[in-house]
């Protein structure tokens, strides 16, 4: 990457794994409520992905305790890979959901995993921490998801940095 493409004022996402759990984090200059909205509505179709990797389409969710969500990951060549899950906990600062690929993922199969988003308010916005668990003995899948979560948080941060919309859906859960 050339020096003119690096902006030291933009936070970079970081992720790591111990082989069974992936933890990723980034600081975003947006409120927890705004991030909650971006993570739980069809707004994900706007920011999740890129033309050269994949795009998320067909987002559908019932955002309540026990509600289900689903989406389709579309590759540039048109292939579609569905995923789904259930919301297990929803508070203004925490989203816990199951996640499952509804196809035979090469390193994870159709294993149900657990994703937790923590939205911690900071002086400059929100620290977003993602904890993706239940990889069990699938170390290759966990390692693959390290790069995936860094991309995901980078897309989210970039989108919100350029999106002044401060609508709040998270206050519904208070």
Write the layout of secondary structure elements.
Elements: E1 14-17, E2 22-28, H1 32-40, H2 44-47, E3 49-50, E4 54-61, E5 68-74, E6 80-91, E7 94-101, E8 113-122, E9 125-133, H3 139-161
CATH superfamily: START domain
* SS strand fraction: 35-45%
Helix content: 10-25%
The CATH architecture: 2-Layer Sandwich
Could you give the order of the helices and strands?
EEHHEEEEEEEH
Query: Spans of 5+ residues with little confidence (pLDDT < 50)?
Result: 166-174
The tally of helices reads: 3
How far is it from the N-terminal to the C-terminal residue, by CA? 43 Å
CATH topology: Alpha-D-Glucose-1,6-Bisphosphate, Chain A, domain 4
Classify the secondary structure makeup into a structural class. Answer: alpha+beta
What coarse outline follows from CA principal-axis ratios? globular
List the strand order in the largest sheet: 1-2-9-8-7-6-5-4-3
Number of beta strands: 9
What does this structure look like?
- The protein has 174 residues and is of the alpha+beta class.
- It has one domain: START domain (Alpha-D-Glucose-1,6-Bisphosphate, Chain A, domain 4), CATH 3.30.530.
- The chain has a nine-stranded antiparallel beta sheet.
- It is globular and about 40 Å long.
Summarize this structure as a short list of keywords or feature phrases.
174 residues, alpha+beta, Alpha-D-Glucose-1,6-Bisphosphate, Chain A, domain 4, 3 helices, 39% strand
């Amino acid at each position: 990457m050339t020096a003119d493409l690096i902006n030291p004022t933009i936070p970079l996402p970081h992720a790591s794994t111990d082989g069974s759990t992936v933890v990723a984090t980034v600081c975003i200059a947006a409120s927890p409520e705004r991030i909650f909205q971006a993570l739980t509505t069809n707004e994900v179709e706007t920011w999740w992905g890129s033309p050269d990797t994949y795009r998320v389409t067909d987002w559908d969710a019932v955002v309540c305790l026990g509600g289900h969500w689903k989406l389709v990951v579309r590759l540039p060549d048109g292939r579609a890979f569905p995923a789904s899950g259930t919301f297990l906990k929803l508070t203004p600062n925490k989203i816990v959901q199951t996640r499952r690929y509804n196809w035979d993922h090469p390193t994870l199969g159709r294993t149900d995993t657990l994703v937790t988003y923590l939205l911690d308010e900071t002086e400059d916005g929100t620290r977003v921490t993602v904890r993706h668990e239940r990889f069990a003995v699938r170390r290759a899948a966990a390692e693959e998801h390290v790069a995936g979560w860094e991309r995901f948080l980078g897309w989210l941060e970039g989108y919100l940095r350029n999106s002044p919309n401060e609508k709040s859906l998270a206050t519904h859960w208070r």
